[in-house]
């Protein structure tokens, strides 16, 4: 009888483990907002923990892990350093070669942007590999843009399948296997870039379409540089640079010249915002845009340099850090069928807390100048 009871209990445990495994591997069907347990507030069972280290592959609800993964509580210390958590009470730390993954149900052919928060712990320069099978990219976590030490990052991809694995992997190799970035708050958004029109040859010139911004965060979302073939969270705008980013900001927390979204050029000359438009060689065009400050305490002499074809203009803006903007323009003559429009901040500016900031850019448009209008002017 005892052996029979043990067999029944063993069978029950196996069934339970199988159910946990299936639940962890089922695809999440969500196209906007926080992913299931995206902020890691649903905790692992204590039986699958060794101190802070998570020992069970499916111990964190809705996630699958591999490698050295820690479950970190708010206020926890590493030596003399306090490990911050950006949202809620818990976050996850990834050691060398550690990964977390979650399966997503998507619409093939659609574009998506993933937003997540991260911070360094040990190393001075870290990066994360992000995969949405079969798409893969890199997000550098080097420069800190907030006084809290946390930043939100975005990464975009095209859904190639209806069921994909979102994988975040730390490829770092350090002396301490526990060293690695803290990650938290994963959200997703389906991207639908507004088309260009005769009134504006630029697409998404007002930056209204972009990565998901968590409503309870006040630090915006970084859009990091990308390879030429990557899809941008601000598509069709791309960010040219090596490791530096631009910041996507919302009207709920920043001063935005128009609409609900804008871009703050926070990395000086190390990150440029670029888009190519269709033009007719020999025809004249006008580029217009707004330059100001985001009302985030960024005080000083800000400036944006704009380029289009062979023309350029430098637009200075004296910021008091409380909001405001001015309108600028550049007339140019197209020399080819595709003209690259480029915006870059010409100065490195810091707020009193030592974090990087810069001019806010919004409401960019390119229109053709008709010959009779030029004559009348």
Chart the SSEs and their pairings.
Elements: H1 2-25, E1 32-34, E2 49-50, E3 53-54, E4 64-66, E5 69-73, E6 77-78, E7 81-82, E8 90-94, E9 99-105, E10 111-119, E11 126-132, E12 135-141, E13 151-158, E14 163-169, E15 182-191, E16 221-223, E17 238-241, E18 246-250, E19 261-264, E20 271-278, E21 284-293, E22 299-308, E23 311-320, E24 324-333, E25 338-345, E26 349-350, E27 356-357, E28 360-368, H2 371-376
Antiparallel strand pairs: 1-15, 2-3, 4-9, 5-8, 6-7, 8-15, 9-14, 10-13, 10-15, 11-12, 11-14, 16-18, 17-20, 18-19, 19-28, 20-25, 21-24, 21-28, 22-23, 22-25, 26-27
What this model shows, in words?
By secondary structure, the protein is mostly beta strands. The chain has helices spanning 2-25, 371-376, and strands spanning 32-34, 49-50, 53-54, 64-66, 69-73, 77-78, 81-82, 90-94, 99-105, 111-119, 126-132, 135-141, 151-158, 163-169, 182-191, 221-223, 238-241, 246-250, 261-264, 271-278, 284-293, 299-308, 311-320, 324-333, 338-345, 349-350, 356-357, 360-368. It has two domains: 27-192, Galactose-binding domain-like (Jelly Rolls); 250-376, Sandwich (Jelly Rolls), CATH 2.60.120. Strands 1, 5, 8, 10, 13 and 15 form a six-stranded antiparallel β-sheet that branches. Strands 16-18-19-28-21-24 form a six-stranded antiparallel β-sheet, with no helix packed on it. The chain has a five-stranded antiparallel β-sheet with strand order 4-9-14-11-12, with no helix packed on it. The chain starts with a helix and ends with a helix. Mean pLDDT is 88; it is low at 1-24 and 372-377. This is DUF642 domain-containing protein.
């Amino acid at each position: 009888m005892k052996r029979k009871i043990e067999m029944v209990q063993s069978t029950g445990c196996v069934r339970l483990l199988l159910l946990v495994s299936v639940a962890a591997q089922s695809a999440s069907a969500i196209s906007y907002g926080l992913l299931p347990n995206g902020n890691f507030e649903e905790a692992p069972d204590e039986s699958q923990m060794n101190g802070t280290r998570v020992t069970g592959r499916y111990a964190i609800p809705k996630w699958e892990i591999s490698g050295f993964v820690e479950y970190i509580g708010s206020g926890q210390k590493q030596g003399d350093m306090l490990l911050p958590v950006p949202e809620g009470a818990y976050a996850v730390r990834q050691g060398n070669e550690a990964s977390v993954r979650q399966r997503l149900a998507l619409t093939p052919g659609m574009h998506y942007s993933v937003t997540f928060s991260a911070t360094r712990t040990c190393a001075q320069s870290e990066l994360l590999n992000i995969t949405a099978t079969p798409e893969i990219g890199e997000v550098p976590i080097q420069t800190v843009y907030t006084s809290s030490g946390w930043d939100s990052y975005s990464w975009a991809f095209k859904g190639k399948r209806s069921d994909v694995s979102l994988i975040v992997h730390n490829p770092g190799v350090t002396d301490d296997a526990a060293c690695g970035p803290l990650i938290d708050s994963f959200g997703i958004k389906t991207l639908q870039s507004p088309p260009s029109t005769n009134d504006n040859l630029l697409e998404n010139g007002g930056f209204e379409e972009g990565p998901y911004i968590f409503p309870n965060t006040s630090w915006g979302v970084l859009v990091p540089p990308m390879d030429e073939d990557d899809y941008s969270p601000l598509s069709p705008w791309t960010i040219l640079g090596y490791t530096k980013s631009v910041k996507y900001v919302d009207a709920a927390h920043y001063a935005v010249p128009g609409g609900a979204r804008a871009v703050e050029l926070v990395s000086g000359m190390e990150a440029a915002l670029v888009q190519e438009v269709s033009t007719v060689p020999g025809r004249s065009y006008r580029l217009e845009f707004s330059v100001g400050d985001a009302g985030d305490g960024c005080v000083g002499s800000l400036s944006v340099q704009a380029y289009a074809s062979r023309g350029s203009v430098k637009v200075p803006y004296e910021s008091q850090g409380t909001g405001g903007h001015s309108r600028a323009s550049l007339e140019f003559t197209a020399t080819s069928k595709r003209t690259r429009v480029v915006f870059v901040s010409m100065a490195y500016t810091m707020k009193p807390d030592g974090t990087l900031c810069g001019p806010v850019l919004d409401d960019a448009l390119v229109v053709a100048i008709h010959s009779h209008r030029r004559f009348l002017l």
